[in-house]
Amino acid sequence: MPTQTHQNTKPSSSSTTKSPPANKSNPDSKPSPSAFLHPTHLSRNQTKYTLIDIRSPPTYTAGHIPGAINIPFDVPTCTWISLGPDSLLLEMPEKKEFFTAMKEAGVAPDHAILVYGGKGNKELPIEQANVIRVAMTLKVAGYENVGVLKGGFETWVKEGKEVERGGEKGRGFVEDNNDAFEGMSYDQSVLVGRDYVKSAIGRAVLLDARDPDVYHGEVVEEWAEKAGHIPSAKNLPMLDLVDELGDFKDEEDLKRLVDEVIGEVGEDTEITTYCGVGGYGSALWFVLTSILGFKNVKFYDGSAQDWVRYYDMETT
């Protein structure tokens, strides 16, 4: 995976004025976002969604989609990610802290959620991967209706949609429904560790989302100091999933790419995705589950940075 560049931000401390979220009205009218929603559709149905802007607070303040709340994505720690054991990067956030943050932000489990950030491009797909990482975290945490704005904020502006400036005008609240988070937890059937992955070698499909030169051992990344890939893993690079503008390709093209790598397998086939530290691997997980409909996809959050501390890689 290319060197990851992130904006250096801290969570916003702007307005805490609270107002009911728009999509708490009629439950029967709540939409189920597609994996990627076009700005035109959002502009026509904006009040039905809880919008989460993951860009830095200064960037958000300079201009954002009206009504969006700002929950920045920032490395090494933020609402969306944490440092794991032995300082592993991009690990899932601590469960209690995450759900507390979601409750305080007014992001209830029954909301239809749309995430957006910077669009990035073919040369810098990490911008898109960060947005997908947030969407994946919400899905694994039990949020069922989660989508991503196609093209990000840049496309929203380019298409002449309304832009709001300044701090947050208000966040939703869930104090009136304290039971909303009762029993919420991470889906442990999705999150797997190194020993599970080791047991899956030769039994299930392992997909490495890193660049081909890293997968083949020609380049060694700083966070995984052994060349190559996990034994038996096949390579489906994150870069192959996006077009020249940095948007994810359409479903037909994505299905063709997956079929070329693992064959035309059934939707219940067990697949585990990983990458260097968990960014690209989470994007691949989201594509497989939310776009292509695979039902049994695992995510190795520790990825290569964790694996190389205990096991060897292969370069064949």
TrEMBL record:
Bias (Low complexity) ranges: 8-35
Keywords carried by this UniProt record: Repeat
SMART domains to which the protein is assigned, alphabetical: RHOD (SM00450)
Cross-referenced Pfam families: Rhodanese (PF00581)
Chain ranges of the Rhodanese domain: 45-165, 200-316
Record SUPFAM superfamilies: Rhodanese/Cell cycle control phosphatase
Cross-referenced InterPro entries: Rhodanese-like_dom, Rhodanese-like_dom_sf, Thiosulfate_sulfurtransferase, Thiosulphate_STrfase_CS
UniProt name for this protein: Rhodanese-like protein
Organism: Sporormia fimetaria CBS 119925
